[in-house]
Every structure is written in C-alpha cells, then in structure tokens.
C-alpha cells in the first residue's frame, strides 16, 4: 500500500470544484488550475509593486488630490494607479463623465472614479510609516518576532513598547519592521 493510493477530498483553490487529492498539500485539481493560480498571483504581485512605486513617487501629491473633487487625467493616473488610455476609454464610452475646460484640460469627478477603482490611500499614519523606508534599510530593521526572540519579550509586549515610544514601524509583506537602532536603545538601555 503506497501513498499514491490516497484519495483526499478537497476543494480546488482556483476553480473551487471538489476533487480527490493524492497528497495533503495538493491545492489544485489540475495543472491548468495550478498554472492559472500562479499566473494570477504573479499578476497581482506585479500590480501591487507598480502601485507601491506610484505611491512612493507621489506621496505628497496624493494627499492633496484626495481632498479635491475634480481631477485631471494625469492626476487620476496618480491617484488610482490606472493608465491614461483606460481613463480616456471610460470617458469615450461615457462610463465616467468629464468636463472639458479647454485643450488638455479635461476634468473628471473623483467620486465617479472611486466607484470604479480603489484609490491609493494615504493617511497621515501611512505617510509617516513610509518614512521608515526612506530612513532605514531592511537589514537595519528587526521584525517583531526577531525583537521578541532577541529580548525574550512576548510579541504583545514588544508591540506595546513600540507604540509607547512611538517607534516607526512598517508592514512590508507579511512582516512588521522596526528600526534596530531604536529598539536596541530601549531594550538594551532598559
Ligand atoms: Zn481546479
């Protein structure tokens, strides 16, 4: 009797249809679904990265645009991370209305775009947190669990200390990063 005889009822994570898996770790019903899922994930990662790039570049401008009701096509690109041609297509198809104030002076109502796309959100907190990346390199930072391990404090204590001393922190991927220098000052100096 080998493992190959195993039949584990599962739901495919891509097409959501039930199938019988041969191993516990199988997530998809077929190579096709596995491949589709991989491609989707890569696409999402790419979109996220592009969004982040826009965010870093326009951090101050976005904060201003968030307060405005009518924005230009170029500003919509910045604020929503979509392309100019997408916006022009939507205007042409009358999906969104535009006001033409002259050549190259098309203005779009921001609310209409918000119904279609999620804007790049920056609140004061996020703005402050992205400062972390400007000031510190990744290797100059600990993750919360690294702090916890190094100083023998449980993660909730670590988080309390971080908040109490207003240490800059930032979530990158699955981890929250904090600058080593700030942490060492507090935990070693204690
Ligand atoms: Zn499937």
Automatic annotation (TrEMBL):
Helix-turn-helix domain location is 72-116
Q: Which InterPro entries match?
A: HTH_17, SinI_DNA-bd
* GO function term, MF aspect, one: DNA binding
Which one Pfam family would you cite for this protein?
HTH_17
In Swiss-Prot or TrEMBL terms, this protein is called DNA binding domain-containing protein, excisionase family
């Amino acid at each position: 009797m080998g493992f190959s005889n195993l039949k584990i009822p599962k739901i495919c994570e891509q097409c959501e249809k039930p199938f019988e898996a041969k191993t516990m770790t199988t997530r998809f019903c077929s190579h096709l679904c596995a491949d589709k899922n991989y491609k989707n994930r890569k696409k999402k990662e790419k979109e996220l990265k592009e969004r982040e790039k826009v965010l870093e570049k326009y951090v101050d401008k976005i904060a201003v645009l968030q307060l405005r009701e009518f924005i230009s096509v170029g500003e919509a690109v910045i604020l929503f991370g979509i392309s100019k041609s997408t916006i022009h297509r939507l205007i042409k198809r009358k999906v969104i209305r535009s006001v033409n104030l002259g050549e190259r002076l098309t203005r779009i109502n921001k609310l209409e775009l918000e119904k279609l796309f999620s804007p790049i959100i920056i609140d004061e907190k996020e703005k402050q947190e992205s400062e972390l990346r400007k000031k510190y390199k990744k290797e100059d930072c600990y993750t919360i669990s690294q702090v916890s391990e190094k100083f023998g404090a449980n993660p909730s204590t670590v988080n309390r200390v971080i908040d109490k001393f207003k240490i800059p922190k930032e979530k990158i991927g699955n981890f929250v990063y904090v600058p080593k220098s700030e942490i060492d000052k507090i935990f070693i100096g204690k």
